[in-house]
Design a protein that fits this description.
Helix content is about 75%, strand content about 0%. It is built from 10 helices and 2 strands. Strands 1-2 form a two-stranded parallel ribbon. Helix 1 runs parallel beside helix 4 and helix 5 packs across helix 8. The longest helix has about 35 residues. The termini are far apart.
Length: about 325
């Protein structure tokens, strides 16, 4: 009988041969996932890749034991039964959907994989009444428990404290180079470069609606320009700065955010109310940029404040003077 909602077979309707076939295919899939992780991480995180290689070998060994057991009980023909064919069975995401995950997330996924497999077999063994099937499921649960123990041994052997620190440092560096640095550059450019045209327009015209349109155009144009420039400047292969698409998105979006921050107050029709709020927004923007530089780029706060706050103040003053003249 199949599940009425999903069209898949229910676990309680599987024969012992199908249960064993499901275990075999699951072990094979998990081994492939581990090898995919190892291949992706080998260059940047060799210690973690070694752990995944060892776990893949463990999955292969258990799969071979299951195949031997199947042959002894049911013959040479193993039914084609996979996780997606069984209602309620734990799922695995394809490796290609997990390619861009950070190293900490991958480690957590692997831990969850082993826990899910062991828990599933334990729960299944507790529900069946047939002695042989119960024994089989209990053996599978024990095997998955062995996987967890083996994973800890492999982690102890390969993921030394120095290796973990080195990999975490590399991951943090990649995050900074791919997201923080381009985003910060965009935020600085958007916040500072649009100050002069927005406030020059505001003090020249006194028209808040017109000022907002100029600010919107300046922010969007700067964002598009910065995004394409960042993406085209470096493919990330030699510099290690990561995907040009990600860097372009980070730079472009943050440039627009920086420009729009002090343009949005001019949606308020009263000129001086909008202008005072825009001044406050500029003050917050510039000091926020200085804080981000200190926190993520290890720039001394006084130097960051001098570069950003003083520089931005000069640009703001230039825009006001030009608009008022």
């Amino acid at each position: 009988m199949r599940s009425l909602l999903s069209g898949r077979k229910r676990f309680q309707d599987l024969t012992e041969a199908e249960i064993l076939a499901l275990a075999i295919s699951s072990e094979e899939d998990d081994a492939q996932i581990y090898r995919g992780f190892a291949a992706r991480l080998r260059d940047e995180f060799p210690a973690t890749a070694a752990v995944f290689d060892g776990m893949a070998s463990e999955e292969d060994e258990h799969r071979q034991r299951l195949i031997v057991l199947f042959r002894l009980r049911f013959g040479e023909t193993i039914p084609l039964l996979r996780r997606e064919h069984v209602a309620g069975y734990y799922a695995r995401k394809p490796v290609w959907l997990m390619e861009q995950l950070p190293i900490e997330k991958i480690r957590q996924i692997v831990s969850d994989m082993e826990y899910d497999a062991r828990t599933f077999y334990e729960n299944a063994a507790a529900k069946v009444t047939d002695a042989d099937t119960r024994l089989l499921l209990g053996d599978l649960a024990a095997a998955e428990g062995g996987h967890e123990a083996r994973a800890e041994e492999l982690s102890d052997a390969n993921l030394t404290e120095a290796a973990v620190e080195a990999e975490d440092h590399h991951a943090r560096r990649r995050f900074l180079l791919t997201w923080v640095q381009p985003g910060l550059a965009g935020l600085m450019d958007g916040s500072v470069s649009t100050l002069a045209p927005i406030f020059a327009t505001a003090f020249a015209t006194g028209d808040t609606h017109y000022t907002f349109r100029v600010g919107l155009a300046a922010a969007v144009g700067a964002g598009i320009s910065m995004g394409f420039t960042e993406a085209a400047s470096d493919d990330g292969q030699l510099s290690g700065r990561g995907s040009p698409l990600k860097r372009g998105v980070a730079s472009g979006v943050m440039t627009m955010v920086g420009g729009l921050g002090h343009a949005l107050p001019y949606l308020i029709p009263h000129f001086w109310t909008a202008t005072i709020i825009a001044f406050i927004v500029v003050f917050i923007e510039l000091w926020t940029i200085a804080w981000i530089q200190e926190k993520y780029m290890d720039t001394p706060f006084w130097r960051a404040a001098l570069q950003v706050v003083v520089g931005g103040g000069l640009v703001l003053a230039a825009g006001i003077l030009i608009g008022s003249s």
